[in-house]
Design goal:
Length: 413
């Protein structure tokens, strides 16, 4: 069985397709994942990145199917996170003549994970090239995309960018290239990947994109998912939008509910936003339509909420009151938003209670921490079932959020 794929003569994918992973340090990998590793056979032999530790044997088998392991000269490590470096100790052992090639920060990070005392290192400086014979690799540091030591490698002779986490997606498939899989699905997963993994580092991503723009690229070989060769323009076009937090005309409503009172409020906010969106569509023919998303925090995952939130211009958070506080999963959503540092969004807090305060009030306070301007000074609250007056307030708030999202979208166009 051949589990390697040729990118170009002497350059092969030798990684591992993980169909079973569903939780990738809290990321919901609903479609599985791949850990891409690339073997370059030239006058010198180099392996770019490895796989997670449990799949070291599969990586070794793939490499050994193309070249004797004793002939591997370089084990290039672009990123020390263990989905790429986990199998590095096994490869160092299996390839006795190989030198580990990485930047100085990466070496320090590797030393924090493994006993590297008997590893041979070759440390590259940013912009330095490594000749492999007819081909070479030029290294560029891209700090914080995704860790401080992250780097990429460019092969000018083949115009291939080995981009590590950048441009990746979590999709397990036997296909390797972007023109062999549904493009909208690849882009959707690339967006989710960006929102959940790279979003806090938008500025650094924009800087890395500036560097990439100076290169002639015919193939982007990321460390996760499909390899870009036919749709490079599609991914390169959307990445700056994601990195700069460009607004879509989108309202996101996320809530958790105990006995459906908060859910009734959420649905009324949704209805108000949808109705207002229809009015905007009638007034602005040919324009994008307002997108309104309603998500129950416990019936989806943080990963999906973040993917929807990335470009949302307005957001409403709702929670029933539990133990005089938020419901836990809505708290998790707000915590997650705090870490992901999305661009500012117009916001609303709402929720219900039985006899004391807690849920909606806690959300209002969290909006201040998130620095999201709220459309109301106090949360919209409902004592148990919402009255017609409360529902009307929710409907109007939905319309206000829709207008705010529309204004932000237009200002960004
Ligand atoms: Fe795919 Fe940051 O590791």
């Amino acid at each position: 069985m051949k589990l390697t794929t040729e990118l170009s003569a002497g350059i092969d994918y030798v990684g591992y397709v993980d169909y079973n992973v569903r939780d990738f340090h809290s990321y919901d990998t609903r479609l599985g994942a791949t850990y891409n590793s690339y073997l370059i056979r030239d006058e010198k032999v180099a392996l770019i990145d490895t796989v997670k530790a449990p799949y070291a044997a599969q990586l070794q088998r793939n490499v050994a199917s193309l070249v004797e392991l004793e002939k591997v000269d370089y084990l290039v490590c672009l990123h020390s996170e263990l989905d790429h470096a986990g199998a590095l100790p096994a490869m160092v052992k299996a390839c006795p003549n190989a030198v580990v090639v990485c930047n100085a920060k990466c070496r320090d990070m590797l030393a924090g994970f493994f006993d590297v005392s008997d590893w041979k290192f070759q440390i590259f400086q940013p912009g330095e090239s490594l000749s492999l014979g007819k081909r070479s690799l030029t290294f560029v540091n891209i700090p914080m995309v995704h860790w401080p030591e992250s780097s990429i490698a460019y092969m000018p002779e083949e115009k291939i960018l080995f981009s590590n986490d950048a441009f990746g997606q979590h999709i397990a498939t036997s296909e390797r290239f972007d023109d062999e899989y549904e493009l909208p699905k690849i882009l959707e997963e690339a967006k989710s990947y960006y929102a959940n993994i790279v979003a806090p580092y938008g500025k650094q991503t924009l800087k890395a994109l500036e560097t990439a723009a100076t290169l002639q690229i015919e193939m982007i070989a990321p460390a996760h998912g499909l390899i870009w060769r036919s749709h490079i323009a599609d991914i390169v076009k959307v990445y700056p939008d994601w990195a700069s937090g460009k607004y879509a005309p989108k309202v996101l409503i996320v809530y958790d509910t105990m006995w459906q009172s908060t859910e009734m409020m959420a649905e009324e906010i949704y209805a108000g936003a949808v109705e207002y969106g229809q009015k905007l569509a009638a007034e602005n023919p040919g324009e994008r339509k307002l997108d309104v998303q309603l998500m129950h925090a416990r019936k989806t995952t943080l990963t999906r909420v973040a993917a929807e939130a990335l470009d949302a211009a307005a957001v409403a958070f709702g929670s029933a009151t539990l133990n005089a506080h938020l419901m836990p999963q809505l708290g998790a959503v707000l915590d997650y938003f705090q870490g992901l540092k999305f661009r500012e969004k117009t916001a609303l807090a709402f929720g219900s209670y039985g006899w004391g305060v807690g849920g909606p009030e806690a959300i209002q306070k969290r909006l201040e921490i998130l620095k999201y301007p709220a459309i109301t000074d106090a949360p919209i609250r409902s004592k148990q079932r919402p009255t017609p007056e409360v529902l009307e307030e929710c409907r109007q708030a939905g319309a206000k959020l829709a207008q705010a999202a529309w204004d932000r979208y237009l200002a960004d166009k």
